[in-house]
């Protein structure tokens, strides 16, 4: 009479007879490992992007507001200083460098302005043909003709 197989052998033979069970199990493990690996790779990025507390947001906003206020005050002070100064250039006494600081006044134009002195009015720059009307219009609000 043939001998009956041992109990463990029966289970092993049964598992070998159904390959879908043994092949399906490793595929599940592979899929689970991919998910775990993906989570481990994403974790550092999520951990670095912690949401800020309301106190941190308020502090950053206060610092930014203070910086804007300081910059605005500096701009306003600069405008006051610039508007308060007498920026007119006297064409009868100005040096060549002072004349050349005027918009559109070149080295040659500054020489012509100095050569045709004295001027009774600033309009004489055009009437004496020292400057064209367009050149004069560029500097008209920045010049005076005071007698020395």
TrEMBL record:
Pfam families: HHH_3. This is Helix-hairpin-helix protein. It comes from Koribacter versatilis (strain Ellin345).
């Amino acid at each position: 009479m043939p001998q009956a197989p041992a109990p463990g052998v029966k289970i092993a033979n049964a598992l070998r007879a159904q390959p879908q069970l043994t092949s399906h199990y490793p595929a599940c493990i592979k899929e689970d490992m991919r998910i775990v690996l993906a989570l481990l790779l994403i974790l550092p990025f999520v951990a670095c992007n912690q949401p800020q507390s309301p106190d941190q947001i308020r502090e950053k906003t206060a610092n930014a507001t203070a910086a804007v206020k300081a910059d605005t005050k500096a701009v306003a002070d600069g405008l006051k200083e610039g508007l308060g100064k007498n920026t007119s250039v006297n064409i009868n006494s100005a040096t060549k460098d002072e004349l050349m600081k005027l918009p559109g006044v070149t080295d040659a134009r500054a020489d012509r302005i100095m050569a045709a002195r004295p001027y009774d009015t600033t309009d004489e720059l055009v009437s004496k043909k020292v400057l064209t009307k367009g050149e004069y219009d560029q500097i008209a609000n920045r010049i005076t003709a005071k007698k020395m």
